Amino acid sequence: MTGTTVAVIGSASVDTVVQGSKSVRQLGGVVTYAGLTFRRHGIETIIVSNVANKDKSILKVLCEEGIHVFTGHTKDTTHFINHVDGNNCWQEMLVNADPITAEQVRSVLGSVQNLHLGPLHPYDIEPKAVKLIHKTKQMISLDVQGYIRSIENHRVRLSVSENLADSLLCAHIVKADEAELATILGFYEMSPSELMHAYKIDEMVITAGPRGGLIRTLKGEEVRYDAKPIRFLVNAVGAGDVFFAAYLTYRLHRGKNISTASELAASLAAQQIEGCYISTKSLGLGC
């Protein structure tokens, strides 16, 4: 492989999306939405994930778009139920795949310039793999969502995992939504600036749904961006993943400044919410 290559690491999931009386099954996970976003911007994309042999067909859409998919052995595939009501969403995790191992990560290290970590739950990537990533010289981006979750009777709740700290230590650019960041800051009893300096985070991407968001830098700069108007809401699932991958694309791989990168990413996230970017139909898995 030549040129810029990104490896997205985390579970591909079977997502049941419930909106009112309607329910659909589709491929999900950060690896899906971020992977497709990177690839559609012409970036060579690798996905490192674990999917059960019986479910390998769910990865067809990724392979068809030219993504290189590397899966390890697992008995089960991660399965979420996403309950969606407008911009509000709550989740259940019915079952999870085995953790992604250090050996799986090591197999792609020599081929990539950017490792994009997208765990869906606290044990999605084994701690040994995170420590290995910490030793690399690649650019590391992290979506914290999987480390701000606990599972209680299948219900997903906000809770800081003991595995978050090691992942923050190895990441250069970190994304969290407002609720996730508030949970982290409360747990560590730090301000955003203190957190970034403690873990040497170059940029913190903070999303706030229809209110836009902001990007903080280690030097203390704050750049706010506005959410783009939505003509109609189809499905907000995956919009944050699309936003972050698009932001990284323009910021790291296209050389754009923070303001331009965030505005372009917000436009793409709006398209995702409207169902015009990565469509539910393209990810559909049937009944």
Give an overview in words.
The model has no long low-confidence stretch (mean pLDDT 93). The protein is built from 10 helices and 15 strands. The longest helix has 16 residues, at 258-273. A hairpin with a 5-residue loop joins strand 13 (203-207) and strand 14 (213-217). The chain has one domain: 3-Layer(aba) Sandwich (UDP-N-acetylmuramoyl-L-alanine:D-glutamate ligase), CATH 3.40.1190. The strands form 3 sheets. It has a 9-stranded mixed β-sheet with strand order 5-4-1-8-9-12-13-14-15, with helices on both faces. A 4-stranded mixed β-sheet has the order 3-2-6-7. It has 287 residues and is an alpha/beta fold. Helix 1 crosses helix 8 (239-253) and helix 4 packs parallel to helix 5. The protein is 31% helix and 29% strand.
How many structural units, i.e. domains?
A: 1
Number of helices: 10
The percentage of residues in β strands lies in 25-35%
CATH architecture: 3-Layer(aba) Sandwich
Count of distinct strands: 15
State the CATH superfamily name: Ribokinase
Q: Can you list the strand order of the major beta sheet? A: 5-4-1-8-9-12-13-14-15
Largest sheet: 9 strands, mixed
What shape does the CA trace take?
Answer: globular
Structure summary:
The protein is α/β, with parallel strands linked by helices. Helix content is 31%, strand content 29%. It is built from ten helices and 15 strands.
Features:
single chain, 287 residues, alpha/beta, UDP-N-acetylmuramoyl-L-alanine:D-glutamate ligase, nine-stranded mixed β-sheet, four-stranded mixed β-sheet, 10 helices, 15 strands
